[in-house]
Design brief:
Blueprint (H helix, E strand, L loop, with lengths): L2 H7 L13 H11 L11 E6 L1 H17 L7 H10 L2 E7 L6 H20 L2 E6 L6 H8 L4 E10 L12 H4 L5
Antiparallel strand pairs: 1-2, 2-4, 3-4
Helix pairs in contact: 2-5, 3-4
Length: about 180
């Protein structure tokens, strides 16, 4: 698959088959993530891979914590269902050792590499930000010294989403001489 095919063909997938994902494929995706650029080569990304019982316990906790909130949590319950159905959930952390915004950029670049690699392997993924509604509960659950940045669902896609509308280069860029 060419880089253009990977970039233009990747989609956020929200429906998965229940088929298992071999650990080796997940490792390939994470290895691709480690080749992202990072601020001062800090390689600030860390990943917690959840499958089976560990995923079930996490998603149960997440759903329970969402149920305690008294404000609108948007699409969070849908994201929870997606995490319950996907065979793999990867929780992404930022070590944020220096406190720089560029460290968040670094981890985000790693996530993009991971998503593109997964797509190239025929896997579907979705980058989930709804987890921030329960940030403190997730931090307490994992007891990591890092900062929570995202969750990613990974699985064999049960759908083939079509392309989403994109703005043209002329709409998003200005060229100055």
């Amino acid at each position: 698959m060419s880089i253009d095919d990977a970039i233009k063909g990747r989609r956020s997938v929200r429906t998965y088959k229940s088929d298992e994902i071999k650990e080796g494929l997940v490792r390939e995706c994470i290895e691709a993530a480690t080749f992202a650029p990072s601020a001062k080569n800090g390689q600030q990304w860390r990943f917690t891979v959840l499958t089976g019982e560990s995923k079930d316990k996490f998603t149960d906790m997440y759903r329970n914590e969402l149920g305690k909130l008294t404000f609108d949590v948007g699409s969070s319950f849908g994201s929870c269902t997606m995490m319950e159905e996907a065979p793999v959930v990867i929780v992404v952390w930022n070590t944020n050792e220096r406190g720089w915004t560029t460290e968040v950029h670094s981890v985000s670049a790693a996530i993009q590499n991971l998503l593109l690699k997964a797509h190239s392997l025929g896997l579907g993924t979705c980058w989930i930000g709804d987890i921030f509604y329960t940030y403190e509960a997730i931090m307490d659950y994992f007891k990591k010294p890092w900062k929570l940045l995202a969750a990613i669902t990974v699985g064999w896609t049960d759908v083939n989403p079509g392309p989403r509308p994109r703005l043209s280069v002329d709409e998003v860029a200005e060229f100055l001489n």
